[in-house]
Design brief:
Porin; 8-stranded antiparallel beta barrel; about 55% strand; elongated
C-alpha cells in the first residue's frame, strides 16, 4: 500500500495541471451531457503467479466530463471475495461520433490480496442514442503492491448520460 501513495500524488498533480481557475465550465460545456453512470461486467485476468485467479466481475461506474475530450470517473467492482476500486481519466481522442474510442489513465486497487497500482488502457463507446451507450474496455494495472505483476481487465457495459 505504501507504493500507492506516490501514484495517487502523481494523479492529483496531473489533474491539477488540467484545471484552470478561469475556465467557465457552464459556458464551454453547455452543449453536451456532463455526467454519466452505468453498469459493467467482465473478466479479471491476473498475471504473474500470485494468489488472485481469473474471475468474472460486476461493477458500477460514474463520471463527469470536464471538457468534450476529458472525463474523470470512479469505479467499484465486486469479484467473489474482493472488491476493486478505480479512479481514472478518459481521453476521447477522436471526437463524438457514433463510435467513440478513448484511452484511460489512472489507478486501481483490489482488496483482500492487495493488488494496487497505476492502470492504463483503451476502450470505445458505441452511442445508440444521445444518452444511452454501450462501452467496451481493456486495461491493465501494474502490480506495485501485492503478489501479481499485472492484472488485466476486460469489460463491457451500458452507460447513461445525463
Amino acid at each position: 500500500m505504501r507504493r500507492f501513495f506516490p501514484v495517487a500524488a502523481f494523479m492529483v498533480a496531473a489533474a491539477s495541471a488540467f484545471a484552470d481557475a478561469a475556465f467557465d465550465y457552464d459556458e464551454a460545456c453547455a452543449d453536451f451531457d456532463r455526467f454519466y453512470a452505468g453498469a459493467t461486467a467482465g473478466a479479471v485476468l491476473p498475471q504473474g503467479g500470485g494468489r488472485m485467479s481469473a474471475r468474472a466481475f460486476a461493477g458500477v461506474r460514474a463520471g463527469v466530463y470536464v471538457t468534450e475530450a476529458w472525463a474523470f470517473e470512479g469505479e467499484a467492482a465486486a469479484v467473489d471475495d474482493r472488491t476493486g476500486f478505480a479512479a481514472k481519466a478518459l481521453w476521447h481522442w477522436w471526437g463524438y461520433e457514433r463510435l467513440d474510442p478513448f484511452f484511460t489513465f489512472g489507478a486501481r486497487g483490489w482488496t483482500h490480496h492487495g493488488q494496487v497500482g497505476p492502470a492504463g488502457g483503451f476502450g470505445a463507446y458505441y452511442h445508440m442514442t444521445e444518452s444511452l451507450s454501450l462501452r467496451f474496455d481493456a486495461d491493465a494495472t501494474l502490480g506495485l503492491d501485492g503478489d501479481e505483476a499485472m492484472v488485466c481487465v476486460l469489460a463491457a457495459g451500458l452507460h447513461f448520460s445525463f
